[in-house]
Amino acid sequence: MIKVLVVDDEASIVKLLQFNLEKSGFQVVTAFDGKQALEMVKSEQPDFIILDLMLPKMDGMDVCKTLRQERNNTPILMLTAKDDELDKILGLELGADDYLTKPFSPREVIARVKAILRRFQNTPEATTAPQEVLLQFGDIRIYPEKYEVFCKDVKVELTPKEFELLNYLASHQGRVLTRDQLLNAVWNYDFIGDSRIVDVHVSHLREKLEDDTKNPKYIKTVRGLGYKLEG
């Protein structure tokens, strides 16, 4: 059973999400502040985290940042009461995989959790069977079943969305992909043209894969259009 950690200081929201997640077949553990959230991640090892932005003791941004600095790539859906683009972009820059603005529908939360998990979960065979290199370009190898990427034989830690974006670019190597195409393919729903989300994740990939981020070898910007991956 997939374990979801719900972190929010509003008991009514925690109760609402817990009820609907458990009804959908998830196991749920809860936390009500940022420090407790980090403790629960270590003790419970959840498969998914729903994380409120505004939390006592340590806010959601700092929780997300701490987890990513510790190379914990558990998928994170961030909740925010602020309808502020900067908050959303900052959350994504720190490693959140997605965001929702309050008020939200529990059905939408569950749909997004499932969408992210579909991309992130490993199959049992992937943990034991030898992996065939399905995608390779330059010094980079991608193992889609294990969600693993190696650059110059060194494993690169990517968040789920970073991996999905790289995998999609690699699957369409040499083709120019618009930001809207990438939003639809990787995020799988309407971001109302918020192309900065794509730009932020491309920037993260370049930092992790490119020797020179100002002159990238692999992920090229096609001005006025989008991006393409070159081998």
From TrEMBL:
Gene3D superfamilies in UniProt: 3.40.50.2300, 6.10.250.690, Winged helix-like DNA-binding domain superfamily/Winged helix DNA-binding domain
MF (Gene Ontology): phosphorelay response regulator activity; transcription cis-regulatory region binding
4-aspartylphosphate occurs at which residues? D52
CC terms in the record's Gene Ontology section:
cytosol; protein-DNA complex
DNA repair: present as a keyword of the record? no
Domain annotation OmpR/PhoB-type: ranges: 132-231
Response regulatory domain: from which residue to which, for each copy? 3-117
Query: Could you tell me which residues form the DNA-binding region?
Result: 132-231
Known InterPro entries for this protein? CheY-like_superfamily (IPR011006), OmpR/PhoB-type_DNA-bd (IPR001867), Sig_transdc_resp-reg_C-effctor (IPR016032), Sig_transdc_resp-reg_receiver (IPR001789), WalR-like (IPR039420), WH-like_DNA-bd_sf (IPR036388)
Subcellular location(s) per record: Cytoplasm
Q: Which GO terms describe its biological process?
A: regulation of DNA-templated transcription
PROSITE patterns attached to this UniProt entry: OMPR_PHOB (PS51755), RESPONSE_REGULATORY (PS50110)
**Main location per the UniProt record:** cytoplasm
Matching SMART domains, A to Z?
A: REC, Trans_reg_C
List the Pfam families: Response_reg (PF00072), Trans_reg_C (PF00486)
Q: Which UniProt keywords apply?
A: Cytoplasm, DNA-binding, Phosphoprotein, Transcription, Transcription regulation, Two-component regulatory system
Question: Among its keywords, does the record have Transferase?
Answer: no
Q: What is this protein called?
A: Chemotaxis protein CheY
Which species is listed as the source? Brevibacillus formosus
